[in-house]
Every structure is written in C-alpha cells, then in structure tokens.
Amino acid sequence: MxxxxxxxxxxxxxxxINNKRxxxxxxxxxxxxxxxxxxxxxxxxxxxxxxPLSNVRxxxxxxxxxxxxxxxGWEVITPRKLAFRQKSSIDRDTRTLxxxxxxxRSEPTLSGDSMRLEKxxxxxxALYGLYIALFKAKQACPYDFRDGxxxxxxxxxxxxxxxxxRVIGITRQALDLLATTDFxxxxxxxxxxxxxxxxxxxxxxxxxxxxxxxxLVDFYDVFLHNDQTVIMLNEENNHAGHFPEYIEIxxxxxxxxxxxxxxxxxxxxxxxxxxxxxxxxxSN
Length: 284
What we know:
The chain is of the alpha+beta class. The chain has two domains: about 1-95, no CATH class; about 105-284, no CATH class. Helices cover about 40% and strands about 15% of the residues. The chain has helices at about 25-35, 45, 55-65, 115-120, 120-140, 145-160, 170-180, 200-210, 215-225, 270-284, and strands at about 1-5, 15, 70, 75-80, 85, 105, 165-170, 190-195, 230-235, 245-250. Strands 6-10-7-9-8 form a five-stranded mixed beta sheet. The protein has a three-stranded antiparallel beta sheet with strand order 1-5-4, covered by helices on one side. A two-stranded antiparallel sheet has the order 2-3. A hairpin with a 4-residue loop joins strand 4 (about 75-80) and strand 5 (about 85). It is globular and about 55 Å long. It starts with a strand and ends with a helix.
C-alpha cells in the first residue's frame, strides 16, 4: 500500500539511525532530537507537544527519505517525491493505543471501502480549490472572514461527504445512557453529540493563519486528522476543560455513524448492534 499523505504511519514508532544533524536551529533538527532522545516515539506524540501536524509529518518524511530515521513498517520508494510504501510484513492494525491518549481499546470491528476524501482525486481537488478561494478571501477581506466565520464555512464545505466528523470513540457515560434505550438515539433527543478532539476553530487557524495556503496533501493531512470526533453527552463537550476519556470505536473507513445532517449522524440498526456488542463486552 502506497502512502499518499502520511496519516497511516502517525502511530508507527520512529527510530533515529544516523546522528548527522541539520542546522542546529532548524525545525527539522528539533524533530530529529525528539526521535533520537525518545525511543519509539510517534508522530502523534510529537504533535502532542504543540507542533503543527503537517509540519511534523513533512519533517519525518524528509528525515526518513534522507536515511536519518526509520519509520517502523514503511519503506521509501521515491525519496525525491517523499513517496512511501507499507512493507508487506507489517502488522496492519496500526491502532495499537498509546495510553497517553486516554483511550480504551474495543473489540467489535467493521470494515468498508476507503473514504472518498482520501482516494477520490476529483473530489479532493474540488474541495481544495474551495479552500484556496477562502484563503484568498480572508487575505483580501480579513475582517469579513474571521476565524469563527471561516470555521462555519469550512464545516459546511467539508461536510459534503459521509466521512466528515468521523467517529472514533464514545464516552462511557454516553454508552451507558444509550443502553437505557436499547441504543436507540432517537429516544434521547438533544442528549448526545459528536465532540471534536481538536476544536474546529483550531483547525481553521492552522490552515488559514499562514502566509500562503498549505499544499493539497498537507490540507487533507491536517483536516482529516483534526476532524475526528467522539460521541458524548452534550455536557461533556466542554472545550474549556479536559477532553473526556473515551472508549475507542474501530471505524477507520467511517462506515459507522456517518453524517446525517451537518452536525447529526445516522444511527441505524448496524450502529445500535455495534454499540450493543461493545457495551456487552465491557460489562463482562
């Protein structure tokens, strides 16, 4: 499997294999030091220190292409284009959890086709074109395109496909509440929501506060990573406090809980059955 952006190896351990340093003050040197000094550190853990995801991914790719680090399970196929391929011997379940993420691994699994936002080149180009237009609009009229306004527009634009607001977990309180109605969300009006792990306005700022638009691949790297959500009680969705602990849901292709309305989701029999099995496995 060839890598088009980098998301698939965000959780792969990184290992320094060459101690030749870049310019001491460069960002790439800083990332190399993290990898050299922290055995098996991952991109996700580096980003947790406050660095932009797209920048970290790019540096990691460059370091690997230059032969200075090793990304577990991946190999470089075209160094100049930063193209990578997943080795056939890799354990393809890269969802092994880092305990610092406050997640609990769940057992039920479902699979489906790849998301259009990752594979459909025509759709990716079209939506990226809208991002470029918005970027230019903000530069031309900054007071008319403030962060809050841009966040609403970006949410509407990117919600065109079922993959938006992909659910990757559920809080225990939300799961227990759903169990009281045999996992029928319709009987719990206005009690549940999908909360973003990364606040949407932070995504907007990461994409629009730079001097020039990010490249297409970096745009989707940032957006798809930051667009992950967790089902929770409305009162748990408080960005002023700590993000609540959650139970991981195996939903890499967004087969479960796809977009319904802009902020709502489809809660069909397959979602109810999945949650029923999940609740049962945690209760035993």
